[in-house]
Each structure stands twice: as structure tokens, then as C-alpha cells.
Amino acid sequence: ITMPNKKTPLTPEEMGRINQMICFMEQDSENKCSEILSKAEEEYNVVKGEMIQSERKKIAKHYAKMEKDYLVHEKMSLSRERKNKRLDYLQKQQAMMDEVETGVLDRIKEDLNDQDHKRDFYKRLLLQAALCVYEHEVNVVVKKSDQDLVEDILPEVNNDLKKMCPFEIHVMLDKLHPLHDNCVGGVYLHARKGKICCDNRIETNLKRILKHQMPALRRIMFNYRRHQLSSGAASPRKPRSTSLIFPPNYTSSNRSSLTDENTDSVYPG
């Protein structure tokens, strides 16, 4: 069967079907195109939301770190400022305590200008230190300017020690190793080649007394624990005794902490 070369015209029914098919294909393509566009827009919105959320988290984390660093810096600055103020306050307190110590030393120097008072004072220092050492033979070291005075006092001291102790304590003056000239005064006793010693210099006693009386001095000078004392929450400490002479019934079992049996050097620095 051979097809004729001449095209036969389409009937209206065929044209209607063709147009119907064309409309259907166009409608289907439009639907698919709109579906593709909606899916693409949906995926775009999802990706955009994820990116926005990720960037928001990064920005929030960055600003949280900045805020944390700022707070840490503020705390460090506040702590440094408080520390500097406290150090300044403590330095001023220490300066006032040094003034008190200097004033006491000046007062002691003035009192030692009286020879009778100085003689009695050195006698009590020697008795106290000798009872602390509590040995048969004791050497005493003083300043060069005080050697004559101490040498004159020693017989009285030895006689008093005979009355106070069950055995004889002989105190001898060591003129070969005097105390430094910048020392205010006092005595330094040692026995058994420096194994037992007693530092009874004025500066040492003053530092010891100031250390023991530090709470009372702070309450007086700086109003420490004022609110506690006013409310009755705490009671002030009783000041420790600072008597120079031990009682007559003094024994070796109650030696003072002035005695040091492990001293490396015989003489004070």
C-alpha cells in the first residue's frame, strides 16, 4: 500500500482532538513547571532558614563570648582595684605601727638616760635571761658602752641568783664579742657554746610585745571588731603579761620560749 503524496485535509473532529491534546500537554507542562518551582522555592526556604539559624547561633555565641570576656575583665579590674586599696591600707597601717615602735624606742632611750633607772632595768634583764638559760655558767654579751655598767651589776645578779635557784648560776661578761653599736640596748646570754641562748635585747622584747599586743593595738588604733564588740558577739582578748622578772619558784620545767637549744650562732646578727 502506498501513501498518496498529497496531504488530505483534517476533519473538524480530528482538529478538535489535536487541539484537545495540545491543551492537555500545555496544562500538564504548566502544572509540572509550577510544581518544580514550588519545590525549588520550598528547598530554598529550608536552606535559607538553616543558614540564617546557623548565622544567628554564631552571632549569639560571639556576643555571649564578648559579654563573658567583658564580665571577666570587669571582675579582674574590680579585684585589682580592691587589692590595691587593701595594700595601700595595710601599708598605711604598717607605717603607723612603725611609728609606734619608733616612738616607744625613743621613749626607752630617754628613760635609759637616767643611770639609776638603767641600772635597775639591766639588772632585771640579766635576771630574767639567766633564769631562762638556767645553766651553771652563762656568758652575757652587751654593747661596749654598757660593759662597765653590766660588769658592776654582775655581782648583785649572781647573789640574787643564788637565792632564787637551787644551784649556783654564774654569769660572766663576754667583752670579746659586743653587740652592735646601732643596737638600742639589752643583753644577750648564751651557754654550752651557744647551744642554749636567750636574746633579751630591747628591740627583741619590743617586737615580741608588739606581736602579742597587736589585736589590742589594732582595736585601739583602727577600730577593729568594733561592731562585734558593740553587739556583744565577741569579747576583747585579755593582754598578756609582760613582766620582766620570773617568780622566785621558777624551775627549769617552765622555761620561757626565749630559750633556743638549736641556735646555730652564739651571737645575734
Short overview:
This protein is of the alpha+beta class and 269 residues long. It has helices spanning 12-111, 115-133, 147-164, 202-212, 214-222, 226-231; strands at residues 137-141, 170-173, 186-191, 196-201. The longest helix is centred in the N-terminal third of the chain and has 100 residues, at 12-111.
Quote the CATH topology of the largest domain.
Answer: hypothetical protein PF0899 fold
Q: Gyration radius, to the nearest Å?
A: 50 Å
- Terminal CA distance: 141 Å
Low confidence ranges:
226-236, 238-265
Structural class: alpha+beta
Q: How would a crystallographer describe the biggest sheet?
A: 4 strands, mixed
* Fraction in helix: 55-70%
Total helix count? 6
Query: Order of helices and strands, N to C?
Result: HHEHEEEHHH
Q: What is the assigned CATH homologous superfamily of the largest domain?
A: ATP synthase, E subunit, C-terminal
> Strand sequence of the main sheet, in spatial order?
2-1-3-4
* Averaged pLDDT: 82
